[in-house]
């Protein structure tokens, strides 16, 4: 029977994110209903609110979540009722040209639930990234559920961040940047994604990890999570500083976790010859960049963009949860505050002031 639950909805461009009652249908074939346990407050949700992703309002926000499976539809076999899962927005199809090439991390036809959740008046909701987890329950495609070990309620907020931002950053270093043991890495922008990239570089065995930002508080947190050097780019030239810290050569891998033309230019010129640049910060669609083509040619190496950290959720989520359980990956450090479902709009404002790595909504406490 369809269920009525509380959820965070934005009804029009720049309208406030407000708690509404919504209707969640029974799961159809290949679908799952989950009880959301925690959900991180990610800037992508605010992009939906601001109409920067599309105009399919009203949106059901939230996508960075830990949940427990409550109902499964016909044909669902890889998860069972009661399983704890991290929700992902890359439910690979297995049939597209990327999947057929053995590159499912680039799947071009990822699945979402076929049915729509609705407002009480029947208005269909568009769930953010096909998830919509700022809700007591949500309907997703079965492939969007990655089963994990039950790490305990106190850790749900931390591991749920693997569903988006933390995975994007770790994957930018380990998967896209292919950081190798002994290499040097610079990360420009030390918000949640950039700080996760620093943690990923540490996991990969980088021996010099340079954090670049204009906020001293963020640089301090970056050092806690693995940075060996910090650069305040509001006080000194980032490219010159990175070169100075790498014997004049530049870093083997430079990760732009901001996604602005000026930070990308910094990343481009701060890498060593034959080094790799990774863009993981999401650019504004209007932004453009000009680079001398001879410099692109003459510096060699690779210029890469990182989609979702080029992750494969079924492979990467359980592995990173295991590293967390072993004490080798401090996911708890990313959880700055825990809030209720009613506080999402306030959490957006806190995020915009740069005061948090992540606010996390705890649904059972709302």
From TrEMBL:
Top enzyme class: oxidoreductase
GO molecular function: mycothiol-dependent formaldehyde dehydrogenase activity
Cofactor: Zn(2+)
Protein name according to UniProt: S-(Hydroxymethyl)mycothiol dehydrogenase
Pfam families named among the record's database cross-references: ADH_N (PF08240), ADH_zinc_N (PF00107)
PANTHER family xrefs: NAD-DEPENDENT ALCOHOL DEHYDROGENASE, S-NITROSOMYCOTHIOL REDUCTASE MSCR
Family to which this protein belongs: Belongs to the zinc-containing alcohol dehydrogenase family.
Domain Enoyl reductase (ER): 3-361
EC number: 1.1.1.306
Kinase listed as a keyword: no
Key words of the record: Metal-binding, Oxidoreductase, Zinc
Domain of life (superkingdom): Bacteria
Organism: Nesterenkonia aerolata
InterPro entries: ADH-like_C (IPR013149), ADH-like_N (IPR013154), ER (IPR020843), GroES-like_sf (IPR011032), MycoS_dep_FDH (IPR017816), NAD(P)-bd_dom_sf (IPR036291)
